[in-house]
Structure formats: structure tokens, C-alpha cells
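Notes from the pairing session

We agreed to fold both candidates in a single pass and log them together. This is the raw record for the first candidate, unedited. Please don't reformat it; downstream parsing expects exactly this layout.

Candidate A
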Amino acid sequence: MISKNRLTPSGWAIIVLSVSALALGGCGRKGPLDLPPTANAAPGAAPSDTESERAAQPSVFNPTYGSEAAPAATRGNKRPFVLDPLLGN
């Protein structure tokens, strides 16, 4: 008896890509680097990170960074676009 439930090459590709995405999605963790076991970690040696210091640092996860800065370019003339009637502009 021949089984008709065999996966095609595209089916295998989907499975491999899904497993790879799940495996790579769990890589890493948020936080500072771990010290080697032989390193002498002095408590309090790391500077404390205050909210104002964190807000001044550029980051992908910091939406307020640069919000106080002036715009980089001036607004130009409005040019008509094909979808303007649909968008209500």
C-alpha cells in the first residue's frame, strides 16, 4: 500500500524554515553580558542607569529619543498623488 501523506520538497522547506525561525527566535536574552567565572565582580562597580540617562541614549526601544530635536528638513510643496481622492487628502 502506498501512502499519499508524503511531504513534497516545498512541505519540507516550510517545516525546516518554521523550526529554524522558532529556534533562532529564542536565541539571546536581554541584559548585560555575563562575567567569566574567574572574574572578580565588585558589587556596585557598575554605574547606576537613571531614567534621564536612558532617555538620552539612542535605541530601537526608546521612542522618545530625539523627540525634542527640530525637524531635519523643511516641508516641501504638496505634489498630487493618484490615491489622494481615496485617502481624503
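Candidate B (folded immediately after A)
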Amino acid sequence: MSSGESGKLLVLCVDRDNDVGAVLGVKTPIIGEEELLKVAIEYALRRPDDSDANAIFAAIQTYRELVSSGYAGRCEVALLAGLEGEGVQADMKILEELDWVIKKDGYTGAILVSDGPTDEAVAPLIQSRLPLISIRRVIVQQSRGVEETFVLLMNYAKKLITEEKYRKYSMGLTGAFVASYSILMALLPQFAWTLLLVALGAYMAIKGYGIDRKVGQIYRSGPVRFSSFVISLLLFFLGLLQGLSRVVQAQSFNASLISLFLLAPVGGQLVVVDLFVLGASLFLIGEMLDKLVLGETLRFYQAMMVVVLLVSRQIMVEIAKYLAGSANIQAVLTWSFIVMMTVVIVAAVRYMETGFSSQQA
């Protein structure tokens, strides 16, 4: 027999952003048909246009269907809630409430009743505590009349303006775009749209790859590491601009574009390759200095990684010269061998340090 047939089922309705608790001032979890029905009626009277009320009623309906199907005494219905901001803290609160409900009366399976994908995001959390037998998705039917559609759109527009979690995107991003466009049109009208599209693309890439979270982790890891990270970014950006400028200004494209880019002079004896190598090395040095400041153990191979970067500088220069026709393949092979030997030494040092640490442990 399955867990649902031989044990006790829990019908769950999850309000991840805690709208019910915020509106009614009630504490969750709420267990039992009578208590849940009172909450559902009161919430529907306060927020008749909110789908959370429909989800609660659907959970009660699912519970009654189970009772009428022979599960009387072997099933229960409950409402769990997270926090207004959703996210990790909300999920942790939902887990705490679920653990409390399970401890109060043992269950062997759960049925999740949800009004949308936001609440369904908690399905893996429920599965970490109970087998999730089924998910019931509640879709509120709307009239297709023009007037009703207009009212629905107005309600959504009101949410975009009044609710904090939507307002920062609908109002904040729109306002920043309009202000930036106005300033750029006044200062650089010929490049306004180009700069805006670059900024929009950069924002989407940063959010899409979670770069902002990674930068936040670097900032919290230590002041020296973060400072070296900022300086490294500036060096990379300067090298990128200088290299692209050299490629654009080149009258002839007979030589390799890579060599033009990498060997573009920056000032004095420095070229673009040097800025890239210095930027990466500076970040590693900042990380090591942070470990020393915080009293953490500094491994020798970490310092050797800086040596590998510095040695790799020359092989990139030789490759660029070879592509431009001003160097022979012998120099490329020689520096390739030197870099390879350096990498082997670093790997051996790391292996010996790891083995020594294991023996001490």
C-alpha cells in the first residue's frame, strides 16, 4: 500500500508571502476545517479579488472530498504562511510551521493546493519532510467581457504602483530609464540609445548570471579583497577600452586583430596584456592579504598561482607577436614549456600541502 493509503494525509495550502496573516492579523499554522473556514470567509470579505481566498476554499474542498472518499479520521487540512518578502526567510518559516504540524500529529503524505507558481515553489520544501502525493492548481475563472478585463488590468496596474515588491521594478526602473534618457539626449544625443542599450544589456547580464550576489559575497569577505577586486575591474576595463580603440583605429587589418588588441600600448612599456595580467594578479594578492589580516592559513600554492599568471603574460605576448608576424614559433614553444612546468610545480606543491594537512588531521 502507498503512504497515502496506509497513513494520514495532510492537505496543505501555502501562503508564501503571508497575505492572510498581514490582512487578518492571525498566526499560522492554522489547522482544521472549522478554523480554516473562518479564516477563508473573513479574508474573502476583506480581499474578495485575491486568489489566496480561492486557494484556501479549494484546500477545504479537497479535504471534504477525501473525507467523503473514506479518509475520515485519516486526513487534515492546514494553512502555512511565509513572510511578506518571500525568499529564504519565508521558506524557513514555512518549514518550521510544517515541522510543528507534523510533530503534532504524524502524517505520511501531503497534498499541496496552490493558486500559482509562487506557492508551488515550496513544493520541494514540503517534499523534504513529507512525500508530496499531488499538487492541485487553482485557476480563478474570469469573465471575458471588455469591462471585466479592464477592471482586472486596472487592479494589476494598481499593484504595480502600490505593492513594494512590484513598485521597485515598475516605477524604479522606468524612472531611471526616463531620467537617463533625458540626460543623455541633452549631453550626447547621437549616442543616447546606444548607451542605454549597453546599460540595459549589462543590467540583464548582471541579474541573469547573479553577478550582483557574487560581488556582494566578495564585499562581505573582506575589505582588502573587495578593494583589489574593484581595482582589478578598473584595470580590465581600461585594457579593454585601449585594445578596442587600437583595433578600431587600425588603418590596415592585415595583421591579426588579436595581436592588435593584446599588444595595444597603454603608456610607457605597458600593453593591454599587462593590464589583464596585473588585474588578475592583484585580485589574487588581495585575497591572500585578506587571509593574513583575518588570521587564516595562507597556502603556498596560492602565492604560486600569482607566479603562474605573471609567467603566462609572456606566452600571450609571444603568441600575439607570432600572429602579427614579428616572432617565430620557437619563442611560443619555449614559453609554453615554461608555463607548463610552472603549472606542474604549483599542482605538486598543492598536492603536497593537501597531503600534509590530511596527515596532521
